[in-house]
Amino acid sequence: MKTDAIKLDGSAAGSVELDEALFGLEPRVDILHRVVRWQRNNAQQGTHKVKTRSETSYSTKKIYRQKGTGGARHGDRNAPIFRKGGVYKGPVPRSHGHDLTKKFRKLGLRHALSAKQAEGNLVVLDGLDLGDAKTGALAKQVKNLGWKRVLIIDGAEVNQNFARAAANIDGLDVLPSMGANVYDILKRDTLVITKAGIEALEARLK
Fold first, then answer.
1. Nearest Cα to 107, choosing from 3, 205, 7?
2. What pLDDT does 80 receive?
3. pLDDT class for 23, splitting at 50, 70, 90?
4. Would you say 100 and 38 are in contact if contact means Cβ atoms under 8 Å apart?
5. What distance in Å separates the CA atoms of residue 58 and residue 75, rounded to the nearest whole number?
């Protein structure tokens, strides 16, 4: 599968051969959903916490005698039915993450790349070479290219000048090839991959 490549100024930069196994699949929503769910669950902190009956600060003295009051039998004010008492079966710190095999995670990334290609929202860039790390100049180029919510994937390492220039541009994110993931790819309107990024992804997802 061949596609045209461009430079940052919008001019043509030849063509690139895309691997059908990465960019030519029929996207499956169920696979993408499972991988995104795995990512988001692993990112959830799970630090929510309530105090149980044993952790509240009331006295543990029995509040009144067991029999003869005509009321319910209670031990102390830490019981969950009392105001400021402990919470029964409330949330405690835990991990929300679950396992997903490496093979399935790679498959999800292939389907995410194929989805962008199928939508026509994949752009191949010759490279991220900038003379100077000037945010204003890069912002103008991005505007001229019509990119609004865009993820750029470079090779093993991101060009430092480009990374500095892109740091303060709203809606523009840059990742090395090893940072490419399904969630970030799907939530952006446009996916831009450099030639070096394509080679690195093909090596990673073989």
1. 205
2. 94
3. very high
4. yes
5. 12
